[in-house]
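Task: complex structure prediction.
Instruction: return structure tokens for all chains below.
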Amino acid sequence: MKKISKKGMNEFIQSLMADYIILAPASTDGIFSFKPVSNFEQIDLSYQNSKKPPKEVFFPQSETMFNYKNGKVESTEKVKQKKILLGIRPCDARANILLDKVFAGPDHKDVYYTNKRENTIIIGLGCSKSLSTCFCTSFGGGPFSKEGLDILLMDIGDKYLAQVITDKGREVLNHKFREATREEVRLAEKIKSEAEKRISSRVEIEGIKEKLDRMFEDLFWNKLSQECIGCGTCSYLCPTCHCFDIADEAVNSEGKRVRNWDSCMFPLFTLHTSGHNPRPTGKERMRQRVMHKFNYFVENYKEPACVGCGRCIINCPVNMDIRKVLKEILEV
Amino acid sequence: MKEREPKILAFLCNWCSYAGADLAGVSRIQYPPNVRVIRVPCSSRINPFFIVKALQQGIDGVLVAGCHPGDCHYISGNYVARRKFAIIKSFLEYIGIEKDRVQFTWISAAEGLRFAEVIKEVTEKVRHLGPIRKPVKIRRG
Amino acid sequence: MQDVQRKIREEAKNLLAAGRVDLIIGFEEASLPLRASPVFIHNEDDLDMLVWNSFCENNLATYLTKVVGRKVAVVAKGCDSRSIVALIVEGQIKREEIIVIGIPCRGMVDRRKIEKEVEGEILEAGEKNGEVLVKGDDFEGVFKKEDYLYPSCRTCKYRNPVISDILIGEKIKENTEVDEYAEVKEYEKKSIDERREYFGREMGKCIRCYACRQACPMCYCEECFVDSSHPKWIEKGLDSSDLTIWHIMRAYHQAGRCVDCGSCERACPMEINLRFLTKKINKEVKDYFNFETGLDIKVAPALATFSPDDRQDFIDSGEEPAGESQGKTKL
Amino acid sequence: MKNPYLPIPVKVGKTFIESEDRMLKTLDLLFLNKKDEENFKFIPGQFCEISIWGKGEAPFGIASSPTERGFLRFTVNRAGVITTALHYLEDGDEVGIRGPLGNHYPVDILKGKNVVIISGGFAFTTLRALIKYLLAFREDFKDITIIYGARTPGMLLYKEELKEWERREDLKVYITVDEGNEAWQGLVGFVPRIVEKMAPSPKDAYAIICGPPIMIKFTLPKLINLGFPSEKIYTSLEMKMKCGIGMCGRCNIGKFYVCKDGPVFSLAQLESLPQEY
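Output:
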């Protein structure tokens, strides 16, 4: 275990700016997102969590895949920038592992995603002050979970302890980092175990998948979907949602092919040109969203597509609560 | 460097304003060549979206002209249009698009001279404003 | 509040029991503090779920276009009732199919404003005698409700439902003093560059989740222009010009239709100031056509009608040049 | 690493309007680079995303067989933005393709078996590919029966080839139309009716069926009545697709992505999946 003073951290980050683009939590009018920063002052590591999940670092909401002119195609995949994603929360780091399963599977590699992923070092920040909507521990994560991180930082007051998790992480540490004392490690352990205890919100996911296996035709979905207004907030703010649309933006035969986030909650998502829509109403769309996360994804990748970050709960305009939904599913 | 000539798009109603433009043409009345005309059946055919879209595509100014009130070929099209234009005009100004970028007027089929005058005036006003900024789409690649 | 809640349940019970409706749309306790959640009640056993408090911020009229053909009772504040009128005027719902449980409303509490006042997460919230009480891990707070209302509630002039079949509670005095367009007027005074910059900056926050559209009762189009691919009016990415155009046209489509319930703004996860757009549109509609949305089911929306005497001082080059008096000759 | 989103450049070769309503057009696409052509290995049933510069891309089943060299054939129904643009293309125009995508008809399983091919409307495209493929290796398969229907004689696809196949001794071909005309001497009647009437034997046989949902809905019970088990009935599904490689998330039926795990499914598979297509 290494340590660095908060002032040292400032210098450390500044020193990395020469070689890396630093993406860190920064606020615009009180809304946090991961932005490229040019000095340490812009970074606010005391943040709770970002509004938009950091998946956008690897899978931007809108991304040009290639430009074209008169049939000549120029891909953007070759642009490789070394980046450091600083201060990401452990739940979001876990979400990236789930996204890897989709974008870097055995059959196809999404080069736009994998290039960014491979060229980014992820420095996480443990959550010592989780929210009541956090339920990461229900999915095997935790406020100090290391999965998906290269380095985990732990705030112990006047300094950070840094746990190096991967070789990639080890490479960026510099002389500013010292070996932590036994007391400091103990303090970190204490903060960690208190933080874990703080996560009081738990959902039972045992048996959800099997229950959903038998629930496709259930009337539950009619009931569940009626209050949903059908916006894309939950999908767009979800760190594991990965649906996208591909569209051309062009004038005549010159333009670009762009991919944009899309949401299964939108009616046009599955609308055929013929006018047929396999998911014509909110009921089918809501069912798809829940099924995809807690049944289909489990079938395909052995894990549910949720990390318990709570963003969908906090931001839903009509206060739909996925914890409640999961509970109700078990009760059906 | 020579100043960029403003690009102006004019939506002209078929029955009055377009005929007015035609009259200007056959009467050989000179007017600035900055204007590009789109003929529409009636001024009420103009969805304010057309105007906003034109500005997005880099048009510096938009003129919409229809029959004088009371003269609409479709009886009341221009009255309906007038309400739409009143709102969109002040709204665009409110969000920072100069009011002279989007102009509305009435031109009859007999007003060839007036058509030329209007085009001159619109062109001068838009030239004075300079090239459009937001919400122009910047195309890369 | 408790009294209103009890009466809502009673009336809802009567309506269901008498078979007058088969669905009640109201509010239930939310899972988060300072919130309430829309709820659909189908049978009498669930009536106890219905609540009424100062956190019932959603405009329930939004759901009415989704349950067309059913006999529905809906809990409606002043603004919701105006949306209901507007939907009836536009032929989207039928007056006789809707039972309006009207509730005079003293405004809903701006949860974000209170959240910004405290350090730490609010875990519990309640209200008493016009005060909102909140509690966190290591703090408590008391806020005077009227100081923490949503902006749309602060300037609301129709706190009593404009239509209702059942009115719960006493009518309250309308707030006629307030200048509802004060903020718009302030904004109008700014320079054009400032306005352009502010507008661009606000709309630049948009993530195109369309929560604003979905929360709005008047956005009931089968296919929104923003989704249309044929013609493709705007691109789907985050280009700032596309974002601004989306918001210009969304707001413009509200002309003569917006009741300023503030739902769009509350739904927005990015906390974009959306009302400053619709409020301006409302102001212009009022100034030009002396029209306010949703007050009378017999009056057509402003942009669906006209008068030959409408103001046209915005018309440019409006003065007819001398010597062309033949100008008005019809072709 | 190969970028699965980059289209392969091709150009339009021969084009042909198939149907009397001029809505169905066949295009042959020719590879611009020899190497791309060599690398493009597919089996009937697979599809491509065709890119039109300036418009976008959309998925289309390959209507030619890998045994036909030198071109890829597609038949396109003019319906939306991309298909309309495809209709406007002319000889020599350059477009892009991504593919081959998806799985294919179970040609290995069909070896040594009787094959019944049933189709309606313009869904016949990938089945043309299959028929061409089976004919190229004719001796590998036993009896081949083709039942194909269209609304009118003028709406039938690949009319010349149909005539050729009808003349062959080693094929049983039943062409039917919903509504005949004076010149039409063939069968008249909906596909399910003809299937019932011609009663292809289920013995040692597989049925491959592709057509509009309504035709499939009414034909499947007929096949089951004839004794075809659901494991031996295959169909190809259509879904709204974008990426074509199982990432963009819209074409799933249950856990399967039609673009990656399909579009060809056995009826047995579909019976185990949610009815959401």
